[in-house]
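Subgroup meeting minutes
Present: P.N., E.W., G.H.
Scribe: E.W.

1. P.N. recapped why we're keeping a running log of single-chain structure predictions: easier to compare across weeks, and new members can see raw inputs and outputs side by side.
2. G.H. added today's entry (277 aa).
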Amino acid sequence: MKILISADMEGATGVTWPGDVLPGAPQWERCRPMFTSDVNAAVLGFYDGGADEVLINEAHWSMRNLLLEQLDDRAQMITGRHKTLSMVEGVQHGDVDGVAFIGYHTGAGMEGVLAHTYLPNSVTGVWLNDVRASEGLLNAHVVAEYGVPVVLFTGDDLACEDALGYAPEARKVAVKDHVSRYAAVCRTPARTAVDIRAAAKDAVQLAVRHEPVTGGPFTIALEFDAEHLALAATVVPGVDQVGERKVAYTEGTMYDGIRTFKAVTTIVSAAVEEQYG
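Output recorded in log:
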């Protein structure tokens, strides 16, 4: 049995504001061990439950945040950027039985600690087939196309509620409770590690591959905080401007959908000016 962990940082234990997750910032250095603790707790729990292999995919920012030297020696980790499936890289090879979303968060325009979708700002909303979409929702549809269930989820309490919509059976651990976008009631790393490990052990029973889900076509819409960003996004073939600050595109699969999404957000990010956005 093989488990893939997709590890993001905004939903990690103790993380509450941008300086906690921006590579190179002093608080980022402080939060890296807590992020690593969350992921390692999941690794330990999965092995406790009988998993044979755990692969971790770094999914935050530079994708070079986790401390490899603090992970259980049985695990392996994909680190670094520019991967075919970005946040869920590794699921496409046909040998993964379950996926864990660790350190996830709510989407752009939603309530939640450090809520966003791919870009930390600029994107004010994302919709998948007219449903407000977080990164978790988008990635859940990607892994479903490979017949892999989401078995474990960790993040703040509102992110756990969001996950009920796309991974209702997954075991969920709230490591903090939302107060505002930049504030939370946080549990200690020692406490959250115990909770995550126990949930991961229990989640192993859910790691059963199913028939691939082909739910397309998928229409994805993105709204930005400035009109010129919508115009910039239309450089990507198939992406049309459907409002003053909104674009949309349709793909037959979420494999293509998430790759187009990555192209759009990459181009939009490059179009943001330092002071005016």
